[in-house]
Description:
The structure is a single chain. It contains 2 helices and 8 strands. By secondary structure, it is an alpha/beta fold. It has 2 domains: 8-66, 2,3-Dihydroxybiphenyl 1,2-Dioxygenase, domain 1 (Roll); 81-132, 2,3-Dihydroxybiphenyl 1,2-Dioxygenase, domain 1 (Roll), CATH 3.10.180. The strands form 2 sheets. Strands 1-4-3-2 form a 4-stranded mixed sheet, with helices on one face. Strands 5-8-7-6 form a 4-stranded mixed sheet, with helices on one face. A hairpin with a 3-residue loop joins strand 3 and strand 4. The longest helix has 12 residues, at 15-26. It holds the Pfam family Glyoxalase.
Amino acid sequence: MAVRLNPYLNFDGDAREAMEFYRDVFGGTxxxxxxxxxxxxxxxxxxxxxxxxxxxxxxxxxxGADAPPGTAHTPGGAFSVSLSGDDAAALRGxxxxxxxxxxxxxxxxxxxxxxxxxxxxxRFGTPWMVDITEPAA
Length: 137
């Protein structure tokens, strides 16, 4: 098996909604497991997501979960999830869906280095960067 690097996002009780949103953005297969399914069926947080994994076309994998019971949720942090490549139509489609209902920090437009680039934070507090390069000649 090859090594993969997968972003793992944490949420404050809305992991199911967020992961379903990302499935709508990227497509693919979403698997969700709750705390109740893993030995805590009577706990107050039994229906919260202990682990979620979205495997989308093109090799995209995104994981996420609700913050464990008794753990503080700290949104944002010092990270962004970056999408890049030369498939302008796909990347613009992701941008439109991710930025809808969120906040755009840098509009998706041509930058001084030549790429089309934008930064936004989606409605779940996840920061995204989208960079569209020119297709190779």
